[in-house]
C-alpha cells in the first residue's frame, strides 16, 4: 500500500485515489496527492512542471536510496539520494503516472505506481511515495488463520539464475530456525517451500522475532547458507542459484585432495577491523570448501574459479571474531565485497551460555557421537583454553603427533597410529579445512575460541568426516564459538 503525506490546502486540484495491493507480479496502485511547493521553487521552464519528494522504505523504516523515479509517457526519470529525496524537472504537462523501481521492490514482487495525476505547466509540486510496510506485506501474502495460529510474520523473495537473471521454477527454499513452544522449549523448524512459475517463494506463519539460516536447492545445486531475520513482520531475501555445477578435485599445499564446486565467478575486496584499518593475514574462503585466500598488503583478497549464485564467505583472523558474509556471484561480472571483522573478546561464561552451548552441541550431533564412544572427545574444561596454539591443545588427544612445521611458528599434526602417510583431515565447524601451508591452522583458531573437539582414526570416523580415497586418515573435528555461539561470538566456551 502506498502511503503519502497529508495533502496541504492549496489552489491546485488534488487527485486522491483509494490504495490497494494486488497480485505479486502486478502493480501496487496507491493514493497520490500533489502538494503545491513554495513560490521560490519553480521549474526550469514555465512550459514544464517540477516534481520533488521522498521515497521511503516502510519495511525497514528508512529512506529508499538509489530508487529510480520515472514519469510514465515521458523520458523524465531520476534516482533518489541517500535520504530518499528526488527532483524531477522539465516534466511535460498532462495527466501522468509516477513509477518507482528498486531492487527491494523486485525482491518482494511489488511495484509502486500512482494513479493518474494532473501535471500543469509552470507549477512545482511534491509527491512522497512509500513501499508497502512489513505488516501490509504479511497481511497480503498470508491468510489470517495461518498468521493467528502459527505466527504473524512472513519471509519472501525471488530465486533467479545468477548468470541469466531468469526466474528459477521449483527451487526448494530451506529455512532453519528455532521457535519456543507453549512450555518454553525450543524446537527446530525447517519449512521448505518451492518457488512458483515466477521464481517467487513465501514462508508464512513465522514468529515476529525469528532469526535463522536459509539455503536454496536446485537440481542438486545449493546456494550458500546465509543468515536471515524478521524485522517489522517480514524477512526479505532474494537468491540466485545455478542450474548445474562443476565439481573438481583440488590438491592443497599439504597434499590433501578434496572435491569442491568450481565455476568462473570471481570476488575481491578488503578485510578491515572496526576502525577501518586493513587486516593483513586474514583467511577468506568460500563456505563449504575451496582454496582460501590470505589477505595481503592493504587487506586485499581475491577468490576466483568460484561457482555462481548466492554464496557465503567464511572470514577468520587470529584475535578477531569469525564472520560469515553473504555474497552474490556471477560469471557475467566479478563481485566486490568489503568485510569488517569485530574484535574477539573472551569473557567468562554464565549458566545461560552453557545451556545454549549444550543445545548447540546437540544440534550439530556432537553429543550423540560422543555417546557412541568411537572417538576421543574434549569439551568444556577438558580443553586447555590457556594454551598458546590449537596444536598444543591437540597434544592431549591420543594417537596424534604434534611436531614443529619448520617455520618456527606453527606445528604439524599427524596420525601416529598410521604406518604410512600419517594424514590428518581437519574440519572446522563442520566444513573441511583447506590447508595452504603446513600447520597454518595454528594461525586461525585460538584455543579460547574452541568449544568442543572430536578425534577419529580409520574406520571409526563418521561418514561425513571421511574424505573419499582417504579412509585411513585420522579426522579432527573442532567446533568453535562461531558456530556454537552464533549470537555471541565473543563469549568464551
Structure report:
10% of the residues lie in helices and 38% in strands. The chain has 493 residues and is mainly beta. Strand 35 and strand 36 form a beta hairpin. The protein starts with 19 loop residues before the first strand and ends in a 9-residue tail after the last helix. The model is unreliable at 1-31, 252-256, 347-352 and 488-493 (pLDDT under 50).
Q: Summarize model confidence as the mean pLDDT.
A: 82
Q: Largest beta sheet, briefly?
A: 6 strands, mixed
Query: How far is it from the N-terminal to the C-terminal residue, by CA?
Result: 47 Å
Helix content class:
under 10%
Strand order in space, largest sheet? 1-2-11-10-6-7
Q: Give the overall form.
A: elongated
Topology:
Elements (H helix, E strand, L loop, with lengths): L19 E2 L6 E3 L4 E2 L12 E9 L4 E2 L4 E4 L5 E3 L5 E7 L2 E3 L1 E4 L1 H6 L3 E3 L2 E3 L4 E3 L2 E2 L3 H8 L2 H6 L3 E8 L11 E9 L5 E4 L10 E7 L4 E8 L2 E2 L3 E4 L4 E3 L2 E2 L5 E6 L5 E6 L2 E9 L9 E4 L6 E2 L5 E7 L2 E8 L6 E7 L5 E2 L2 E3 L9 H13 L2 H7 L3 E4 L10 H4 L6 E5 L6 E5 L8 E5 L2 E2 L17 E7 L17 E7 H4 L9
Parallel strand pairs: 2-11, 4-13, 4-14, 15-22, 15-23, 26-32, 26-33, 37-40
Antiparallel strand pairs: 1-2, 3-13, 4-5, 4-8, 6-7, 6-10, 9-12, 10-11, 15-18, 16-17, 16-19, 19-20, 19-21, 24-25, 26-29, 27-28, 27-30, 30-31, 34-39, 35-36, 37-38, 39-40
Amino acid at each position: 500500500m502506498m502511503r503519502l503525506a497529508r495533502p496541504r490546502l492549496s489552489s491546485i486540484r488534488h487527485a486522491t485515489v483509494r490504495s490497494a495491493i494486488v497480485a505479486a507480479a502486478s502493480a501496487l496502485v496507491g493514493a497520490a496527492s500533489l502538494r503545491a511547493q513554495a513560490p521560490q521553487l519553480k521549474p526550469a521552464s514555465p512550459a514544464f512542471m517540477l516534481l520533488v519528494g521522498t521515497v521511503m522504505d516502510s519495511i525497514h523504516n528508512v529512506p529508499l536510496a538509489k530508487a529510480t523515479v520515472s514519469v510514465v509517457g515521458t523520458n523524465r526519470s531520476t534516482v533518489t539520494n541517500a535520504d530518499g529525496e528526488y527532483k524531477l524537472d522539465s516534466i511535460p504537462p498532462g495527466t501522468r503516472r509516477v513509477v518507482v523501481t528498486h531492487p527491494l521492490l523486485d525482491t518482494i514482487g511489488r511495484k509502486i505506481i500512482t494513479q493518474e495525476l494532473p501535471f500543469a505547466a509552470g507549477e512545482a509540486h511534491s509527491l512522497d511515495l512509500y513501499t508497502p510496510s512489513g505488516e501490509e506485506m504479511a497481511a497480503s501474502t498470508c491468510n489470517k488463520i495461518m498468521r493467528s495460529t502459527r505466527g504473524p510474520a512472513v519471509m519472501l523473495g525471488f530465486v533467479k539464475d545468477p548468470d541469466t537473471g531468469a526466474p528459477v521454477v521449483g527451487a526448494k527454499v530451506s529455512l532453519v530456525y528455532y521457535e519456543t513452544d507453549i512450555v518454553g522449549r525450543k524446537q527446530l523448524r525447517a519449512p521448505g517451500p518451492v518457488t512458483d512459475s515466477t521464481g517467487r517463494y513465501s514462508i508464512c506463519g513465522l514468529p515476529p522475532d525469528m532469526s535463522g539460516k536459509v539455503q536454496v536447492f536446485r537440481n542438486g545445486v545449493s546456494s550458500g547458507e546465509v543468515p536471515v531475520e524478521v524485522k517489522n513482520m517480514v524477512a526479505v531475501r532474494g537468491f540466485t542459484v545455478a542450474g548445474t555445477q562443476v565439481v573438481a578435485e583440488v590438491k592443497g599445499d599439504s597434499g590433501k585432495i578434496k572435491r569442491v564446486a568450481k565455476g568462473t565467478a570471481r570476488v575481491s575486496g578488503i578485510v578491515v577491523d572496526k576502525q577501518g584499518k586493513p587486516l593483513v593475514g586474514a583467511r577468506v574462503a568460500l563456505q563449504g570448501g575451496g582454496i582460501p585466500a590470505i589477505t595481503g598488503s592493504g587487506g586485499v583478497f581475491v577468490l576466483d574459479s568460484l561457482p555462481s549464485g548466492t554464496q557465503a564467505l567464511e572470514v577468520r583472523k587470529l584475535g578477531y571474531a569469525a564472520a560469515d558474509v553473504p555474497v552474490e556471484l556471477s560469471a557475467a561480472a566479478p563481485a566486490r565485497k568489503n568485510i569488517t571483522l569485530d574484535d574477539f573478546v573472551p569473557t567468562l561464561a554464565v549458566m545461560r551460555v552453557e545451556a545454549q552451548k549444550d543445545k548447540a552441541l546437540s544440534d550439530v550431533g556432537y553429543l550423540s557421537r560422543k555417546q557412541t564412544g568411537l572417538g576421543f572427545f574434549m569439551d568444556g574444561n577438558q580443553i586447555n583454553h590457556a594454551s598458546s596454539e590449537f596444536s598444543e591443545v591437540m597434544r592431549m588427544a591420543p594417537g596424534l603427533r604434534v611436531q614443529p612445521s619448520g617455520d618456527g611458528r606453527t606445528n604439524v599434526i599427524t596420525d601416529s597410529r598410521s604406518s604410512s602417510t600419517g594424514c590428518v583431515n581437519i574440519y572446522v565447524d563442520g566444513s573441511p579445512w583447506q590447508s595452504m601451508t603446513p600447520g597454518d591452522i595454528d594461525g586461525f583458531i585460538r584455543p579460547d575460541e574452541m568449544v568442543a573437539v572430536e578425534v577419529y582414526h580409520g574406520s571409526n570416523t563418521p561418514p561425513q568426516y571421511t574424505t573419499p580415497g582417504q579412509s585411513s586418515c585420522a579426522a579432527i573435528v573442532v567446533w568453535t564459538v562461531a558456530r556454537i555461539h552464533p549470537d555471541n561470538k565473543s563469549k568464551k566456551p
